[in-house]
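Bumping with the actual sequence this time:
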Amino acid sequence: MPRLARRFAITAGLLFVLALGVHAVSGERPNVALNAAQTPASPAKAGPAGEEASLVAAFRRVEVASVSDAIEQLLGKKMYMSHRMRPVAPGSHFAGTALTVLLKKEENTEGAPALQGMLTAIDQGPPDSVYVMVVEDGSDIAGIGGLMGTAMSARGFAGAVIDGGVRDTSYLQRIGFPVYAVGVVPSTSVKHYRFGGSNVPVTCDGVHIDPNDIIVADNDGVVVVPRARAADVLKLAQELDFKEHSMQPYIEKYKSILKAVEQFGRI
């Protein structure tokens, strides 16, 4: 090798070693090409958790009435709760997966320990959960209040649906946590109820709910979507939404709902 080329190679090698030393001191990795074994892995594709989140997010963008109609058309049954189930605050709208809790009516002297399971369910619940509580014969018993609502909100729950009463409504409105219940009462479940289980099948305001079913709610009420048919229900609900939203300007233009129904086949 010619002397000039050899000197250039030695100098380049020294500079590279010096660069490695600088990076080691600074904690940075040298900016060198990576071979195939060093190439960073590609971002992981969305798994079941990602698919679930996407499904829930899509249900938030459809109207509950369309979801209810889609279920009736596909499954031939009613999966909406009665007019008694109303939001604490107007404008409530959410979708999420059911985390079910059952309270059994039973007078006791244990107090709060008898109900610890309902609190544990909150602390273990993942984001986008809907806390579905059934208070046995409890329309005049507050199943939840401000403290439980605060915990659910902090953990990223979508909302709560209580087949029973609710209290601390001003506070729940202030923190913006959406709750549906069959009544507003100042009472407590402590010493009157016992925790009966979580993530178990329940019947909430007459509707059967399995854990992880999808709950969708807005000003029109609450609908339960069986998890096994959620994708089919979503697709049809989106189609029904599109037709209805297209019909509104059509009716305004032609001043006829009969023409709109004939055109779009939706009512």
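The tokens above came from a reply further down the thread. Residues 3-46 have pLDDT under 50 and may be disordered.
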